[in-house]
């Protein structure tokens, strides 16, 4: 049945009602900030509105705008406001990390804090791969880059997490490879 | 020891802890953003080259009217598509000069013309003659923005989106002798009367919807805070506008009025329109006579610290509120600005009965009408049925009417029949009225 005038906006609204909570979570994992997450999500949805009738996979499209918009924001933010937040490639002595299983909550907090210090594309890769459970190819498609770039960004992300002073021993690249194989 | 499982757990824990304030308010907020983007796209503030690219069938010729190697000078009127078109036009006080023309091949039903971002903003006028009862419609992103009927006409120029756009000219039942063209105008270098930012890249017009600018100002480039005072001779309602461009992500522009912080907090746009008069906010009540202070400042996030950005430019202004009328327990302006021109209230059509929507018909609209609505109760939008080319973009505006609200939706083009109805997104009771505005013709316009 041919669409009638006015139909598309209704579908859009229904999409926002049904799916935006999920997208908000992704936005928060990317931005680590509730206000920025809402702003990012609304920005992405408003951009998507203009292309709504031309796209088939709406959620994938919005997610891609979300991530690419975030990447742009974050690039500027690192350069403009927090130029010293980039971690050095090599670190000094690591503080002792939690070894007691009871420290799991604290360890997760540290991991969350360490993720905040990841460059934008690396954080995006981490979120897409390990929260959205996208494959390398899907992640590459969302970010508009090659699969090789996704692999290298993931590897660099784990390398940075490994040397982050707030963390205990971190996932090895072997673990990453195992996960890659599962996907 | 941290593993990929720890990473997944951390992400999932953080995601689960996100407190979503609700999707319905988000629908409203997103539509507000869309409306703002669409307004800005058609605001007289964009940056488009007056260079057009034919994209698709139907375009017969490009280039300046009368031939030549470049744009014709903006001197006297000239003939285009069998009509005399003016050399210059004024859109809300901003001068535009004739730049070039695009002639449309009437043997095809649709012509497409793409405009790409450039140095100067442009506006486009639909010109037609010999339509022999048919219609020529100019469509921008699904929205009909101008239509020529009957024998033909020179339609008032419409400002184009700042980000570039692809226009369609849709011809319906036109005769073989019809002539259709687009006259492309480029904004002049002089900003309009009012308060102008350093460098002339933005301004607050001296008058908005017929009401005067009470006070306003801009920071120097890189400034992140500004205070501007204005005087009121008597107790009255005031509307405030702001301007913000910033390169920093997550930048928000805030306005404090007198001793009340946070009158307005919105995200800062990278591509704010040069005409900063177009959008505004208004306190619930009037301000007293005397001196008042507006403070505008830039923060990270909605409530974050002051943000330094060498590329930031902020502005704030106050305008007197125009005459309003009460519709469905909400206030609507008697005169509004849409698509670079003034419109005045023409009709108010009750659109609910006992809390349920009832459809209203607008038959053979004699000319363009801006449509809007006022409602009280629920999250409410407008549904538009009928209409020909250019009606796709209508009916998309949901507003939060739980406390009473009104909005402008778009333009109904002349010559079509429409069925208009309100819809509450969950089917809850609401009270509402649909309003129609007709164009205000300036004596010097000489255009429809």
Automatic annotation (TrEMBL), chain A:
Transmembrane segments: none annotated. CDD domains: Sigma70_r4. Residues 84-106 are annotated as: Disordered. Residues 22-78 form the RNA polymerase sigma-70 region domain. It comes from the Bacteria. Residues 110-161 form the RNA polymerase sigma factor 70 region 4 type domain. Signal peptide: none annotated. It holds the Pfam family Sigma70_r4_2. InterPro entries: RNA_pol_sigma-70-like, RNA_pol_sigma-70_dom, RNA_pol_sigma-E_actinobac, RNA_pol_sigma70_r2, RNA_pol_sigma70_r4_t2, RNA_pol_sigma_r2, RNA_pol_sigma_r3/r4-like, WH-like_DNA-bd_sf. Keywords: DNA-binding, Sigma factor, Transcription, Transcription regulation. NCBIfam families: SigE-fam_strep, sigma70-ECF. Belongs to the sigma-70 factor family. ECF subfamily. This is SigE family RNA polymerase sigma factor. The lineage of its organism: Bacteria, Bacillati, Actinomycetota, Actinomycetes, Propionibacteriales.
UniProtKB/TrEMBL annotation, chain B:
Residues 264-287 are annotated as: Disordered. It comes from the Bacteria. The chain crosses the membrane at residues 43-63. Keywords: Membrane, Transmembrane, Transmembrane helix. This is Uncharacterized protein. It comes from Nocardioides cremeus.
